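Tutorial handout. Part one gives the primary structure; part two gives the three-dimensional structure as tokens.
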Amino acid sequence: MITRRRILQGAAGAAGAIAALGNSPLTLAAAATDRRLVVVILRGGTDGLALVPAPGDANFGQLRQRLAVQDPNADNIDLDGFFALHPKLTGLASLWREKQLAVVHAAQTGYRSRSHFDAQDLLETGHNTVSALADGWLNRALGYFAAAETRTGLAVGYGTPLILQGKTPIATWAPRRLDRPEPEFLNKLMMISARDPEISRALGEGIKTEAVNRRRLGHLESSEIAGTGAPRALADLAEAAGRLLSADTGARVAALDIDGWDTHGYQITALSYRMPILDRTLMALKAGLGAAWANTMVMVVTEFGRTAVPNGTNGTDHGTGGAMLLLGGAVRGGRVLADWPGLGKADLYEGRDLKPTMDLRAVFKGVLMAHLGVDAAYVEDTVFPASRAIRPLENLTVA
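Part two.
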């Protein structure tokens, strides 16, 4: 039996929508801002001391000896004589040289209990306590642009991360898994929906959006790779996100997940595979953005760091302080921002972790205010309520 719900579902499929129809089409209207912001979440708890090592700390070598990359041709990439990059992050190293990469180290939210799920919830909601009813802080930030006609936010991939969930409408996009409907099928849908304004509008907008996306994305529009775990899949997803954000109309803020950072065992091997994927993904995002890269800020974050000392299987367990990356043409880069706590036994948090000295919300606030132009009172009262003691980090963007 053909029902109104089935027709709506068909319309969504025809448009290449991934989520519910109400959230799916990319509205072709004036953008709320010319600045772009992308949040990349590394899920699993990335080892910040592997991502951005600190060989300049007198205790680093002894603590991390068993986790050092055993390759004489792949030394850590020096940044400033104290901090370095993992040797596989060659693309990011080029951004550092161009002053389009900054690092925020010894950073974490206010969470301290090392549970993946709770840590990710607080990272994405921006609150001090976990609540099943909480929405995402990035969705709340998009509410500042609610008067704009476009869906400013874009969830990239199969599913909408919590950080973008909430009452502010967003767009969603993922590579098309199903074959494109035949024109005859679309014509029949148009005929059936002609007497229902809501269905007719949604279907027409979806078809128009699908056609525009096909022109923007080319082969990326219909990726045959099912998930986001394979190297090429993530790079394609990131490049597609960049192309969508680069358009004169539509979304300006996006979120993307990269899984696989829970390195309890054999961390050297695991990261020798994951780090190049991260590097290629971020460089593909840059390529997709094209000229819009100049107005872009990318924040790469994770829910927590890992233990300073390896465990018995040459891995690391759940930790606390970690590292955050800021990259893009709008970043005031070439700097490591850190109130470095040290890696001596007495300096470690609870005797085991890098001690967090920067709340990630200070960075988020600074980016929203300085980069996207969100009003300070709105950020403090609506986006990150009950956090006024955490002052926004300043001077993150180029003049």
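Part three, for discussion. Residues 235 and 281 are 4 Å apart (CA to CA). The radius of gyration is 22 Å.
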